[in-house]
Amino acid sequence: MLRLRQVCLAAPHLEPAVSDLAAIFGIEVCVRDYHVDIYGLNNALLPFGADFVEIVAPMRQDTAVGRFLRKGDERGAYMAIFQCDDPERRQAHVEALGIRTPHIIDRPEYRNVQLHPKDCRATILEFARSTGGEERPGNWWPAGPDWQQFADMRGEGARIVGLEIASPDPEGLAAHWSRIIELPLGRQDGAPVLLADGCPFAFVAGDAERVSTLVVAVSDPARALSIAAGRGRAVTADGFPLAGVDFRLTTRGAS
């Protein structure tokens, strides 16, 4: 089992990023400040169905997130967390590739292996197991004990349906992630792509390596874009930027 369960974005302050994201997609925050204060951070998690977008903001300057934010506005996603049932084996695998694992969370209810961003390239990758979370609606420790009360589990709300990862060398980065994540490399619209539990990661040309775009399926993209514009976001034909990434909207169920 391997699925993208959580994408972490960084902002100088939680607001207005959190309230804008909630309003645009019609969702609620499920948890705040859940064990991240020890890293000098505030956070908020918002459920996109049974998956999550987290926004973190530094409480002080001397944090990894603070250094990440100083890279500039188009910095990309801070972190991508994969749910799996074998983080220990995956840790051994990536270390055999020469990739450092500088931070491990080892709790009875949660095991998380964090990979070094310079070794991953583009973002921090993590592999995590949450006890009782084998099925997608099950436990996900970072989201708190009551996240299901805030989530649309009927399939009618916004869903993360893809990522785009930019790089001056998309073919090379795609091959690198293929080795790390242990997924076969395919093609989609001429671009290299990895498919994790039905969610495509497309690697595209860009000036810098970063997770540049979250593709989100919604029932009414025009309405979501109208709300985004009303909240002062720089709306394009199919998306808007927020917290260092572009959100690109697609109609739910569209092929």
Task: Explain what the structure shows.
With 255 residues, the chain is of the alpha+beta class. The chain folds into two domains: 2-150, 2,3-Dihydroxybiphenyl 1,2-Dioxygenase, domain 1 (Roll), CATH 3.10.180; 159-251, 2,3-Dihydroxybiphenyl 1,2-Dioxygenase, domain 1, CATH 3.10.180.10. It contains six helices and 15 strands. The strands form two sheets. It has an eight-stranded mixed beta sheet. A seven-stranded mixed beta sheet has the order 10-11-12-9-13-15-14, covered by helices on one side. α1 (17-25) packs antiparallel against α6. The two termini are 25 Å apart. The model has no long low-confidence stretch (mean pLDDT 94).
Task: List the keywords.
single chain, 255 residues, alpha+beta, 2,3-Dihydroxybiphenyl 1,2-Dioxygenase, domain 1, 2 domains, 8-stranded mixed sheet, 7-stranded mixed sheet, 6 helices, 15 strands
